[in-house]
Design goal:
The complex is a heterodimer of chains A (262) and B (347). Chain A is 28% helix and 29% strand. With 262 residues, chain A is an alpha/beta fold. Chain A has a single domain (2-215), classed as HUPs (Rossmann fold, 3-Layer(aba) Sandwich). In chain A, the strands form 3 sheets. In chain A, strands 11-10-9-12-8-1-6-7-13 form a 9-stranded mixed β-sheet, with helices on both faces. In chain A, helix 2 crosses helix 5 (190-198) and helix 3 (95-108) crosses helix 4. Chain A is globular. Helix content of chain B is 26%, strand content 26%. By secondary structure, chain B is of the alpha/beta class. In chain B, helix 3 (90-104) crosses helix 4 (117-128) and helix 5 packs parallel to helix 8. Classes of the chains: A alpha/beta (262), B alpha/beta (347). Chains A and B meet through helix 3, helix 4, strand 9, strand 10 and strand 11 of A and helix 3, helix 4, strand 7, strand 9 and strand 10 of B.
C-alpha cells in the first residue's frame, strides 16, 4: 500500500507577514515547523505502516526550497521518501492554483492508495486545499477524520462533525484529512535521521509539471486579495477585583444583562 | 481514477450569464439546521444589494418545513431529493450541487463554514473552476463593481483580509456560523419550491454512510452555541474543570476548553477552541482560568462579549475581554454559580 502524506511548512511563531501590496503571505523560511495537523497525519501513516509492513510512505510538500526541511523531518520521523514541489512560478497561488499543482505532482509520483494530510494549516487556515486536491485527482475526500480503520480495499473513517461523529466507508484510492485525535505525533528516530541525511529528495518544478504560466501563481488564482487591515480587537475592558463580597459578581451580571447576552 | 484536465481560469466565462444568489442550507435527520437561517440573513442582504433572487439549496431525502426557508427570506428553494442525500457524502453532494450550479448559473454561492460547507464548497469550486474564500466574517457587495467582497480573519485573527473573485463565477464563500443572526419569519412571504431529481450518475458514489454517533458531551455544540463557558489550565485538575461544566449546564451553554485542558484530559478535542481546535464566535464567552495564549485567542476573539476570570491581572486574556474579574476561579466561579442558580430560581 502506498500512502502519500502532505506536509506543509508553516511559520513556527506568529510572526508571519503579509505583503502590503499583493496581500500574499510572506514566508521567510526562518523558524518553521511542519504544520501540526500534518504531523498527526504522518503519525497515522506510520501507525498504519507499523501494522501493515508493505506500506510505503511518501511525504509531499509544496513551498520554497527551504520546505525541504519539512520533508527531511518527515523522513526522520518515518516516511520512506519525499518529493518537493517548488518553483517561483507557484508563488502567490490561491487554494485552487495550489491544489492543481499538488495534484499534478502527486500524479507524477505514480499510483497511490491513500493521501493523508491535516484538515487545515495554521497559517492560511482555509482548510480547503485538501478537498480540491482530491477533486483534481478524481478521488473522494474524507475530511475532519479522527479515526481510521484500514480494510482490504478501502477504509472506514470516523469524521468529527457538529454534535457528533459520522462513520463512512470508502474504497481506495482516497484522500483523508485528519484532525488532532487521529494519532499522537511521533518523534524523529536515529535511523530516520540518518536516512533523511542520505536520501535524495527529488524536486518537481513547472518544467516537470508543464502547466501553462497563466494557470499558476496570482494569474492562475481566481481569488484576489483586495486589502488587508488590522481588526479592531482592543476592547474597553471593565476590570474588577474579586473580594469576599458578591459585588463583583453582581457587577458582571448587570453588565451581561445590559449587553443583552443573559 | 479520472483524468486530470488542465483548464485555465482565464478561459472566458460569460460573467453576465450568472445571476442570483444561492445559499447552501443544511439538514440533519430531515430537520433544517439553524445555520441555514443565518445564511438566509447573509443571502437576503446580498441578493437585495444585487437586485436579484435568493435561492436556498437543500439536499435530503425527506425534509420537514421547507416552507420556513421561504418565510425566512428565500425566493426559491431547490430541493435536491434522493435517499442518498439523507446523510452527507462528498461525491453525491458535490456532484449534485455542481450540476445545479451549471444549470442555474448563480452569481454568488454562500455556505456555512461547517464541516459540511468546508468540505463540499472546495469540491464545487474546483469542479466549476472558480474561487472560494473560507470562513468569512463579513460579506458585502462593492457598490461600484457589484463584486462580492469577502472578508476573513487571517493569521490567527491578527489580520483581516478582504478577497474578491473578479473573473470567474460563481463567487463562492463560506461564512462562520453565528456571524449573522437567524433571518426572522415573515408569514407574508411567498416563493417557489423546486424539487430536483438527479438519480443516476450524479448520485453514484464509492462512499457508504455507516452511522451517525451523537456526542452526548456536545449536547450544545460549541460552534452553534450562544453562550460558551471555557476553562483552561487554571482550573487545576479534572475536578476543578467540573466547575466549568456545572456553570455551562446551568446556563444552557456549551463547554469550551483550551488545548492544555484537552491535553490534560479534562475535556475532549471537540471542545477545543483555538488554532488547532475550533473557531467560535458566540454572543457570550466566559473564559475561566485561561491565560490567553495567542493560539486560543485566535479561536474566540471575534465573540460578541468576552468575560475573563483569572487571578493574574497581567493575563493576556484581559486584553480581549469586555469584562474582567481578577481573582481566584475557585472563589469567584462558585459565587457566580450560586448567583445564577438564584436568578434561575426567581425566573
Amino acid at each position: 500500500m502506498k500512502i502519500i502524506v502532505l506536509v506543509k511548512q508553516v511559520p513556527g511563531t506568529d510572526s508571519v507577514k503579509l505583503d502590503p501590496v499583493t496581500g500574499v503571505m510572506v514566508r521567510t523560511g526562518k523558524d518553521t515547523i511542519i504544520n501540526p495537523l500534518d504531523e498527526n497525519a504522518l503519525a497515522e501513516a506510520i501507525r498504519i505502516k507499523n501494522t501493515y509492513p508493505d506500506v510505503k510512505i511518501t511525504a509531499v510538500s509544496m513551498g520554497p526550497i527551504s520546505a525541504m526541511k519539512a520533508i527531511k523531518e518527515a523522513i526522520a520521523m518515518g516516511a520512506d521518501d519525499g518529493v518537493l514541489v517548488s518553483g517561483r512560478e507557484f508563488a502567490g497561488s490561491d487554494t485552487i492554483a495550489t491544489a492543481k499543482v499538488i495534484a499534478a505532482a502527486i500524479k507524477k509520483t505514480g499510483d497511490f492508495d491513500m493521501i493523508l494530510c491535516g484538515e487545515r494549516a495554521t497559517d492560511g487556515e482555509t482548510g480547503q486545499t485538501a478537498a480540491m486536491i482530491a477533486h483534481y485527482l478524481g478521488v473522494p475526500a474524507q475530511t475532519y477524520v479522527s479515526a481510521l480503520e484500514v480494510l482490504e480495499d478501502g477504509v472506514i473513517v470516523k469524521r468529527t462533525v457538529e454534535s457528533g461523529f459520522e462513520r463512512v466507508q470508502v474504497t481506495f484510492p482516497v484522500l483523508v484529512s485528519v484532525n488532532k485525535d487521529i494519532s499522537d505525533t511521533g518523534f524523529p528516530t536515529l535511523d530516520g535521521k540518518l536516512k533523511a541525511k542520505k536520501v535524495d529528495v527529488p524536486m518537481l518544478g513547472n518544467a516537470e509539471l508543464g502547466f501553462d504560466k497563466s494557470e499558476l501563481g496570482l494569474t492562475g488564482s481566481p481569488t484576489r486579495v483586495v486589502k488587508i487591515f488590522s481588526p479592531k480587537l482592543s476592547r474597553d475592558t471593565i476590570m474588577v477585583k474579586a473580594n469576599a463580597t458578591m459585588q463583583p459578581i453582581d457587577e458582571l451580571l448587570s453588565f451581561l444583562v445590559q449587553k443583552d447576552v443573559l | 481514477m479520472s483524468m486530470y484536465v488542465n483548464c485555465s481560469i482565464a478561459e472566458a466565462k460569460n460573467l453576465s450569464e450568472f445571476k442570483g444568489v444561492f445559499i447552501l442550507g443544511e439538514q440533519r435527520d430531515g430537520k433544517i439546521q439553524a445555520v441555514t437561517f443565518e445564511l438566509l440573513t447573509w443571502g437576503r442582504g446580498i441578493a437585495d444589494d444585487l437586485g436579484c433572487e435568493l435561492a436556498c439549496v437543500l439536499l435530503g431525502d425527506e425534509i420537514e418545513n421547507l416552507d420556513e426557508v421561504i418565510l425566512r427570506g428565500a425566493d426559491k428553494v431547490f430541493f435536491i431529493q434522493d435517499p442518498i442525500f439523507k446523510n452527507f457524502l462528498t461525491q453525491p453532494y458535490s456532484n449534485a450541487i455542481t450540476r445545479l450550479v451549471n444549470e442555474e448559473k448563480p452569481e454568488v454561492i454562500i455556505a456555512g463554514a461547517t464541516t459540511t460547507g468546508r468540505t463540499v464548497m472546495p469540491l464545487v469550486a474546483a469542479k466549476t473552476n472558480t474561487g472560494l474564500t473560507a470562513d468569512c466574517t463579513e460579506l458585502t457587495i462593492d457598490p461600484d463593481t457589484k463584486l462580492l467582497l469577502q472578508t476573513r480573519p487571517a493569521i490567527g485573527g491578527n489580520i483581516m483580509a478582504t478577497i474578491k473573485t473578479p473573473d470567474t463565477r460563481p463567487q463562492m464563500a463560506t461564512v462562520r456560523p453565528r456571524s449573522a443572526k437567524q433571518s426572522p419569519v415573515d408569514t407574508s412571504r411567498t416563493g417557489q419550491i423546486i424539487v430536483k431529481n438527479y438519480a443516476g450518475a450524479t448520485t453514484m458514489t464509492v462512499e457508504k454512510f455507516l452511522e451517525f454517533i451523537i456526542d452526548t458531551t456536545q449536547a450544545v455544540s460549541i460552534e452553534e452555541a450562544d453562550v460558551i463557558i471555557a476553562g483552561g489550565k487554571g482550573m487545576k485538575n479534572a475536578a476543578g474543570f467540573k466547575l466549568v461544566e456545572e456553570l455551562a449546564d446551568l446556563m444552557g451553554a456549551a463547554v469550551g476548553a483550551t488545548r492544555d485542558a484537552v491535553e490534560l484530559g479534562w475535556s475532549t478535542y471537540p471542545h477545543q477552541i483555538g488554532l488547532s481546535g475550533k473557531t467560535v464566535s458566540p454572543k457570550l464567552i466566559i473564559a475561566m482560568g485561561i491565560a490567553g495564549k495567542i493560539q486560543f485567542l485566535a479561536g474566540m476573539q471575534t465573540s460578541d462579549v468576552i468575560v475573563a476570570i483569572n487571578k493574574d491581572p497581567e493575563a493576556q486574556i484581559f486584553k480581549v475581554a469586555d469584562f474582567g474579574i481578577v481573582g481566584d476561579v475557585f472563589e469567584v466561579v462558585p459565587m457566580l454559580i450560586e448567583t445564577v442558580k438564584k436568578m434561575k430560581a426567581k425566573a
